[in-house]
């Protein structure tokens, strides 16, 4: 049996191990971030390089993965064993929802012992609730909204419930072809919803509401086009200070995202195109806005190939979108982008990209003029251009208090990674800084990197997707390659972090030693 001294040492070791966090399963390599700025003048001519077809090769997580993170921060595993985790959302009672489209379900992650980490997964919704490839989610005025590939459904939500019941109400139908992801956000006035709808093609002309941002009442009524020409408006968010709407867009590449207006009276839905660069009819490739019940849906912005992220800035209340752009024009065309969007703006897809001076070859006549010069002339230049084929998949504004003040009200974006580039790119989390006027500074910088182990493969052990700021101010993100969620925390000094990890390892060794002594009943 143990002596009193051995028992005492065991108790102290247990206490110290509980204090020091040993969840880190990766070696963190810190770096000082540098601005990455891409301008219209930097863009090559179409077909300067051949168009590659190289999907990312998902490799198992290495036994000692090397994850790069901005200096002062640490990255560690938050939870694993999910099924293609995508979008993240807090419930009003503090649980975490994660959409898992390939499993056709939404999971509720519960922290039952209040240690800051989920220890239970409950199915919040599945096919029995008419869930169909769920992506964007929102809680608005007593309802739970989900952006399925085939439209927007809402369900009455009973406070503290960890499962929804019934089939809910389909408040808006959307063609599920092409870009199937849908993003949705609520207006700062909480009376409208904005929906991002990707195009049906890569760069063929789709009729509205494809490749646009749509605006509607909360019940889905009175839907109109808010902005258009956005191939795949994959992220939408209102700025936390200015309340202006920003979009992150993936060019020429279906997801649905949804966000609520800051006034809580509208919902905004991003709907991607059905194709790469064929013209899709609206509401494809647009952001739609509607009433909270889905009525009065209109197009808010369009020409957005796949508007995959939508969010209102927390100060300006302007709507921002992250958009995936078109493929097939070469390694460095066409940039994805992040930008503020306003009513009736057009962002080029499929006739132009980034500027009225850059027309898509597929829609250019032999004399050099566009088949739609009227729309080309309206093409807006986005606020921040992103390396082509990065495949931005989500964005959010940082409103927590853990990170340094320079991150406050700036945006984070998740890059899922390329398939249409000779040398792989993306597979990381980036930060988009804002200035004192609550506008983007025009560049982005790497924040978490290192998952791409062989760019020529490309080989990667993580494909980032969804983002969420936790209540303690840390950041978590999903990745659907090895089905994990990672957590990023700020440390006062990286040396403290390394010391903490070292001490944890030492005491784990001590614990194993005394377990051995106990097993052999050594006095």
Automatic annotation (TrEMBL):
Where the record annotates domain Pyrroloquinoline quinone-dependent pyranose dehydrogenase beta-propeller, the positions are 68-256, 264-490
Which SUPFAM superfamilies does the entry mention? NHL repeat, Soluble quinoprotein glucose dehydrogenase
Stored Gene3D superfamilies: TolB, C-terminal domain
**Record Pfam families:** TrAA12
Output this protein's name. Answer: Pyrroloquinoline quinone-dependent pyranose dehydrogenase beta-propeller domain-containing protein
